[in-house]
Structures are given as structure tokens and as C-alpha cells.
Amino acid sequence: MKILITGGAGFIASHVADAYVANGHEVVIVDNLSTGKTKFVPEKAKFIEADITDKETIQRIIREEKPEVINHHAAHIQVGYSVENPQFDAENNIIGILNIMEAAKDIGVKKVIMAATGGAMYGNKQTPFDETMKEQPLSPYGISKRAGELYLNYYHELYNIPFVSLRYSNVYGPRQNAHGESGVVAIFSEMIMAGKTPLINGDGTHTRDYVYVGDVVKANLLALETEFVGELNIGTTTEISTNEVFDIVVTELGSDIKKEYGPARPGEQVTSSLSYQKAKEVLGWEPEMSFPEGVKKVAAWYKEQ
Length: 305
Ligand SMILES: NC(=O)c1ccc[n+]([C@@H]2O[C@H](COP(=O)([O-])OP(=O)(O)OC[C@H]3O[C@@H](n4cnc5c(N)ncnc54)[C@H](O)[C@@H]3O)[C@@H](O)[C@H]2O)c1
Description:
Layout: E1 2-6, H1 11-22, E2 26-31, E3 46-49, H2 55-65, E4 69-72, H3 79-84, H4 86-107, E5 111-117, H5 140-159, E6 163-168, E7 170-172, H6 184-193, E8 199-201, E9 207-208, E10 210-212, H7 213-225, E11 230-234, E12 240-241, H8 242-253, E13 260-262, H9 277-283, H10 291-304
Parallel strand pairs: 1-2, 1-4, 2-3, 4-5, 5-6, 6-11, 7-10, 8-13
Antiparallel strand pairs: 9-12
Helix pairs in contact: 1-7, 2-4, 4-5, 6-8, 6-10, 8-10
The structure holds nicotinamide-adenine-dinucleotide.
Nicotinamide-adenine-dinucleotide binds next to helix 1, helix 4, strand 5 and strand 7.
């Protein structure tokens, strides 16, 4: 199959691109390299540097390349910055997907797979979150991701373009950018490797659901095959505290750095985890990597750098 991957030079989608290439698909990657790196682009993929907010360019690329599937991972991903600059977030995550879908409908694309958020989608509810719960995103980032899904529903209803929206929990793994604000495994690993002590925000008891990038890749492979159309949580249901993340990263990196705490971030969710029962039913997907094993892989990757 010919698959166009947006954001394919980034952390998650470069792993997806590797797997699609390994499975014999023809892959075209579009990325503006704002956080992505060309060294992550698989050799056998075609790379086009372009911005999805540039309507003319992205639509010309889609019309010329005529992919059968679009896997959409390009996005602005910083929740904090989306609060400071909601217009920038919406430009990338709402106008961006509209630019893509208007061209996708013209070429009759057969499927769209989108990277959405589970962690920022449901608001403050009892965990684990499942897809029957009302979406109540509390940040412009969560709102823009939900808007993307609503547009995909619209293009499905009106133009019969099937879609799968994968609502990831906190994804971690090799290649994650430590300069964002959400990749705590990457942030802790990079700082500890540099001999610095990362500050834990608050008392470290807040929990998150950490899903390994290899498991996320499997969901992107299964999404190619399924007849299912709609939204699916991709997480582990297991809640891990920031203190536990710190301890495991320190152990795997063989460091003896001690915890230091900074001020809590106002308004931050205390807990977050996703039920993956629906993904299990419709895709046969389940997370396989345990958190300590996954962190071992991240640590090994950092040691190679
Ligand atoms: N990392 C997580 O925990 C997580 C959780 C939920 C959802 N997601 C979603 O997964 C996707 C990938 O996230 P990631 O963690 O790999 O981040 P990332 O920053 O590594 O990847 C994003 C990629 O998109 C590119 N990009 C950004 N804006 C672009 C634009 N306007 N035009 C073209 N390319 C652009 C970047 O250069 C980068 O290569 C995003 O859509 C994100 O919202 C990530």
C-alpha cells in the first residue's frame, strides 16, 4: 500500500514508518522538521519537507503522491504552550488536518489514521477513561485533537472516508524529544545522563498511563487492516507515579541521583489512565511491554547516543 505519513520524522511516527516499510508498504513522509529529525526517517521512505499549515503545498503533495492511506501524526503537541498560544495550536492541529482532508477527499483516499490523545481528552473523571465517556478536553491541545476527530467523523459521514483515531496515553520510547514537556521518561533520562538532577513537579504522586512506542506501532499496523471506523484508546490502564518513573529510570541508567522536588504545576490532572478494552475487541490489540522493560530500552538507546 502507498501510505503518506505526516510527522514521520518525529518520535512516534518514525517508528510507525519503520514498521510500515518493514511490512512492504511504500511510505512517503511529510514533516516540517520543527521537532522531527531526518536521521529518524527510514532510508526506504521518500521524505518531503513541508508544513501541513501551508495549504497549497500540502494539497499539491497529496494530489501528486495519491496515497491510499494517510497516517496523520504531525501536530503541535505541547499542552502548556497550547494554553499560551491557542491560535498556534489550532493552526497546526485543526487547520492542518482540514488542509489534508480537503485534498484527501479529492483523491479518494481509502483510510485515514490519526494520532489523538487519550490523556487530554476526557477531563477530570474517574480512571480508567473509556470511549463511552463524554469528551471534555481541558486544554486547547485536547480541544484541537477532538476537533480533528470531529472533522474525521464529518468526512466519513459525507465522503465515506473511513478513519481510525488512536487516542494514545503517555507514549515513551527511544527517539522521544526530551525538550517538550510531556515526555517525562525522556526528560529524566536525558538529564540524568548529563549528570543533572531533574526536578519533579509537586510531590511526585501524580500518576499517568505509560504506553511503549512499540505497542503504539502495533496499533498503527492493525489500524491499516481493520474495518472499524472511530476512536480507540491506546494505553495500558496501569497508573505509574512520577516518583516510580524516577526510580525506574535511575535504576536502569545505573545512577545514584536522588529525587528533588519543585513546585506543582497548577491545574494538572492528578491521575490519568485508559481502558483499552475496545481496542482489544476491535483490533485484537493489547499492550505487551512492561514499563521497566520499556525503560530499559530507552536507557540502552540513550547510552548509544
Ligand atoms: N508523545 C505522546 O505521549 C503522545 C500522546 C498522545 C498523542 N500524541 C500525538 O502523537 C503525534 C506524534 O507525537 P510525538 O510525541 O511523536 O511528537 P514529535 O514532536 O516527535 O512528532 C511530531 C512530528 O510532527 C512534525 N510537525 C509538527 N508540526 C508540523 C507541521 N505543521 N507540519 C509538518 N510537520 C509538523 C514535527 O517536526 C515532528 O516530526 C502527535 O500528533 C501527538 O499529538 C503523542
